[in-house]
Amino acid sequence: MRLHETSIALLGIASSALATKKPNILFILTDDQDWHMESMQHMPFLQKYLLHEGTLYSNHYCTVALCCPSRANLWTGMAAHNTNVTDVYPPYGGFPKFVKEGWNDNYLPIWMQQQGYNTYYSGKLWNGHNVDNYNAPYAGGFNGSDFILDPFTYEYYRAFMSRNGAPPVSYEGQYSPDVTAEKAYGFLEEATQHDEPWFLTIAPIAPHGDMRQALPFRADMPRYHPRHAHLFKNYKIPRTKNFNPEKPVGVGWIRDLPRLNDTVIEYNDEYQRARLRALQSVDEMVEQLVKTLDAKGLLDNTYIFYTTDNGYHISSRRMLPGKECSYDEDVHIPLLVRGPGVPPGHTTRAVTTHTDLAPTILQLAGGYRDDFDGAPIPLTKEQLAGPSRAEHVNVEYWGMAIPEGKYGRELIYGHGKVGEIGTENAARNNTYKSLRIQSDKYSLFYSVWCTGDMEYYDVLKDPDQIENYYGEDAEKLKSGYEIAGRPFEQVVNRLDALLMVLKTCKGQDCREPWSALHPSGGIETLEGALDAQFDKFYAEQPRATFTSCELGYIADAEGPTDHNTWEKSTPGDELKKRSFDYSGPWSFWT
Q: How confident is the model at residue 425 (pLDDT cuts 50, 70, 90)?
């Protein structure tokens, strides 16, 4: 069954409860929470109320490893190259860019209101949403809101918040995640006083690093509440093969990194301990929310989503704390769902992404759009046991990689001086397009950088993603290598063609990219595309490349946008080329 047909078939997802009263939806969104350093295992209430009572999506990914573009992707259901919000601040990102592109009047909160929902938000919404532009314009789509505002967003004891568009109020001296939670409890109480269903999002800043964005600049590990100071004192980041490796790994600026010394490693371990402690406030909030819903008799008709905007790395590949890369540490992230029909204590391997969450939530509300780049995820036992979803994840990024923490301000990455303000110490040329393919038979990573560097990792054999088939051991790794009985060259030809589709895809081509290459149907997976009859077709495809390294999405710098299509004809086969104009957003989006 094709994905758009599946979407239509799933409109009755919430069974009889949805038919009588639409479900409430509670969405919890943390900031920079990791999967690979085991943060969820250190949240006992999350495990008790969501992991044991809901479903864990073990192959869930963000598609851009930076908060603002990732949130734009999440709240619109559109790939970052289609939102054109690709950074945290103007000119390429942030709240002003979100408004400029027309999304402030055309994203999930607006659509939920159109479905009869009262909508509420507590916490961080956008970067670049600040004490000067908080009502210029007011963030659209909310019946009630209390937004954390720049330049104080990441100061744990100095938050400024604007309630329902009113002038900002200082919460100096109060712990920001606790303030966000208290605001959320109030909105939940307000929401339950009405007959309409509600959609409440709670977005604390934990476990993001503590950062002052105004002079005097400060960047350090997250701050935690004193009540959690005694926790995790013996914790250490898992010493995986990619933890501060003896030999350089990766490509580009990553391969040039010096090995971390013992002082930095100890700081990094403590940095992650601080992140775990900061998450305890979120964990306590999860318990309070579930208990409140239960006491009000609403728990059985409420979907609870728990996720984060992007992942996080610390010490992997010799890197300081940060994100912005396409490795699993940065893009493979938590997603837990509890609600009507969702099997408790279940783990699914279905491949899902942030692009799928807006379609999922809108569908639960009874709405439907056919222009999403994502598709609703399976929720019920029957759906989870149904046809396999697509196996691809499209990851993209434009701009710099900025090291965080106190050592991130020093001459670690070869730029700037200690204490300088701005991004002089950031790694340039961090623009790339990446592809993750995940199935029961193979798990692959393929990436093309603006510098011309390339990466390929067989993640089943190499879960730490350090043995690059384009690296110095390439010939040894490629010798005798096969996927589905086909050699490395044929595998990469398919992956590169798929990346060519995904780098500029829209709508169905994002959801079903193999059908863009094989419009007559029949090919839905990498394994199917590896049939030898297609070897010449894939060998003659344009290759994914960049013409320059840019700090944001500039179409002219993205290299070729054409790809060939395989179409059956009579008699025999012919190749046809499709050319696309991806110069801007679709007109009816704005």
A: low
In this model, does residue 94 exceed pLDDT 70?
yes
Which residues have a catalytic role annotated?
67
Could you tell me the sign of the dihedral formed by the alpha carbons of 217, 222, 225, 226, in that order? negative
Question: What gap in Å lies between CA 470 and CA 454, rounded to an integer?
Answer: 6
* Cα angle: 226, vertex 227, 233; to 5 degrees: 80
Which helix (H) or strand (E) element contains residue 454?
strand 454-458
Closest by Cα among 144, 186, 154, 152 to 170: 152
- Say yes or no to pLDDT of 272 above 80: yes
Question: With the CA atoms of 503, 505, 508 and 512 taken in that order, what torsion angle do they form, in degrees rounded to the nearest 10?
Answer: -20
* Domain map (residue ranges) of the chain: 3-386, 395-589
C-alpha distances in Å from residue 365, one per residue of 207, 362, 374, 402, 507: 30, 5, 17, 38, 21
Q: Is 116 helix (H, G, I), strand (E, B) or coil?
A: coil
What's the angle, vertex CA 122, arms to CA 281 and CA 216, rounded to 5?
A: 75
pLDDT of residue 60 exceeding 70: yes
What is the torsional sign of CA 344, 349, 354, 358? Answer: negative
Torsion sign across C-alpha atoms 267, 273, 276, 280: negative
The encoded tokens of residue 27 equal: 């969405």
- The CATH homologous superfamily for domain 3-386 is Alkaline Phosphatase, subunit A (3.40.720.10)
Residue type, position 544, single letter: A
Q: pLDDT for 278-314, tens place per residue?
A: 999 999 999 999 999 999 999 999 999 999 999 999 9
Higher pLDDT among residues 576 and 452, named by residue = 452
Average pLDDT, the chain: 91
pTM of the model: 0.92
Give the contacts of 532 (CB within 8 A, at least 6 positions apart).
486
Which residue bears the tokens 């979100």? 98
pLDDT at 424: 54
